[in-house]
Amino acid sequence: MTTFRLAATELRRLTSGKLPKLALLAVTLVPLLYGAMYIYANWDPYEKLDSVPAAVVVDDTGAEKEDGRPLNAGQDVHRELVDSGTFSWTRTDLRRAQEGVANGDYTFALVVPADFSKALVSPADFTPRQAKLRLITNDANNYLVGTIADKLAGEIRKGVASHAGATAAEQFLLGFSTVHDKTVEAADGAGQLADGAGRLHDGLGEAQQGGTQLSDGARQLLAGQQRLASGANRLADGTGQLHTGLQQLQDSTAPLPEQTAKLADGAEEVAQGNEQLAQRANVVGNLSQDIVDNLDQTKAQTAQQLRQAGVDDATTQKIVDGLDQLSSPATNANAKLQNQVGPLNELARGARQVADGNRALANATPELTDGIDQLADGAEQVDDGAVQLRDGQQQALSGTSRLADGADRLVGGTRQLYDGSGQLADGSSTLATELGKGADDIPHPDDPTRKATADTIGDPVAVDTQAQVKADTYGAGLAPYFMGLALWVGGFVLFLLMRPMSHRALAAGVAPWKVALGGWLPAALIGLAQAVLLFAVVVFAIGVHPAHQWETLGFLVLTSFAFTAVVHSLNAAFGPKGKFIALVILVLQLVTAGGTFPWQTIPEPLHPLHQVLPLGYVVTGLRHLIYGGTSDAVGQAAAVLLCYLVAALLLTTIAAWRQRVWTPSRLKPELSL
């Protein structure tokens, strides 16, 4: 009996009636129903999220930005949620949102608190606090939706933070531009200050020269004033002496009219004293002449002192004319007196002549005394004027001295200002130069550059995903896992109908390897049909487009052969217990294959199972074939499946060899499935 005859016999048995045919068709379609329906149902759930109800609560009261513009970040968040098309958003209040999440009307709720915008602008006032979004979830509604909501809230937080950071960075960069512009203005101002300081320095140099000339002139003026004061002192002394002499003359001539009158009256009586009278007349004439002579000399000295004191000629001439007027009576009296001296001298020769002369003298003496009085009064006025001139000159001398000292201080202060203005000019020039250099170092980007820089600062890291291979949809991403499981389930259900081995062939002494191979071939043939149907529906009906289409089909066929061989060997070796073992292996592969999460995330004690069990290799091989990965991973997975296929057939052969001898346990098994 050949292997193919054994396989054909088993197939005829399975198709001998209507119900067996239907059962065979059902088990053939099991992988298709399992794998294709799973992939179809989970094809692209993210596209359907807009039908999932969610609540949004916007309590944000808004805030005012630093530039005075309003900020309503809560409204922006709501608008972005609606525009995003994710979930079916309903805007409501907090109480209704909480109740809706609790009773399942909403799968979750996103709450924007009242101080959301104020918290965003709080760093500008140096009172920073985080703006918080509140997410209300209920895993009783759906765990994965809550996970997606967490991710959505994170994206919203990232977007708001990026916008807020970009806005703050733009204001910050705008501040830099303002600082740059102000620094440039400051540099220009410092340059102008340097120019002005230079001009001030030059002007102070000229002022210093003028101050020096002023000081020299003030010193010369002081020397002249000192000489003028000395002359004024001498003038005052001379006029004082003149005044004193005239007072003495006035005192001495005051009784002269009475005496001359008496002399005239007593001329007759005092004839004998004519000689004495003539002598006195000579004395008086000499004294009068001396007074007149002294008046001329005093007048000359006064004129000279006035000119030396700096009194102009017109004033000096007025004073001299005044002195002439004052001395005119004395001069006239002197002339008259001198004219009388001769008669007095003749008095000695004749009494009559003396009496007449004395009468004439008595008549002239009042005029003389009046002239002397007038001269004395004029001398007093001249003396008062000279004293006033001396006092005024002393005041002028004191003022000139102060003027000279002030001029010296002015020269010293001007010199200090001159030196300081030079330092100011140098410092201003240095300041202008350094400010100009500093302005070049201050960033001053234009509007597009500032906006781009602010956007980069606000969101400095962007993920540029370069997918070497990529699944088109969520269903395509799970297809390798579901298709591998479907083929294992398909192989498992086949042996609910099929017999692992032909006992008749074993009793007839057919070679164990032929019995083993003959028992596997019907399952392999139906498994081939399962793999082809699964491939056709998934590719052409559901829309998974493998990068390597025919290689994918071949790999699915190899997987089906390996899985049916393994399940066949378990049933052949362990009998009814083999079905349970196959089911346990299915469960272990469900959790260790890494079909959803990376296999490294499973507990570490389960890691060896991933390395040993075949489904993980099937998932890896199908991923690389469907998405377009490397051929090395496909080759490794195919090699592992071939090893499982050969090992399973070898185990089935050993089981067939052992089952040639019947034992009590085989005749009456403890467990029958």
From TrEMBL:
Species whose genome carries this gene: Saccharopolyspora rhizosphaerae
Compartment list: Membrane
A Gene Ontology term for the protein's cellular component: membrane
ABC-2 type transporter transmembrane domain span: 465-653
Alphabetic keyword roster: Membrane, Transmembrane, Transmembrane helix
Ranges where the record places region Disordered: 433-457
PANTHER family from the UniProt entry: PHAGE INFECTION PROTEIN, TRANSPORT PERMEASE YVFS-RELATED
Superkingdom of the source species: Bacteria
Topology of the protein relative to the lipid bilayer: Multi-pass membrane protein
NCBIfam families in the cross-refs: pip_yhgE_Cterm, pip_yhgE_Nterm, xxxLxxG_by_4
Residue ranges crossing the lipid bilayer per the database entry: 22-41, 478-498, 519-542, 554-573, 580-599, 637-657
Family matches, as Gene3D superfamilies: Methyl-accepting chemotaxis protein
Stretches with biased composition (Basic and acidic residues): 437-453
GO MF terms, alphabetically ordered: ABC-type transporter activity
Signal peptide: none
Keyword Transmembrane (UniProt): yes
Protein name: YhgE/Pip domain-containing protein
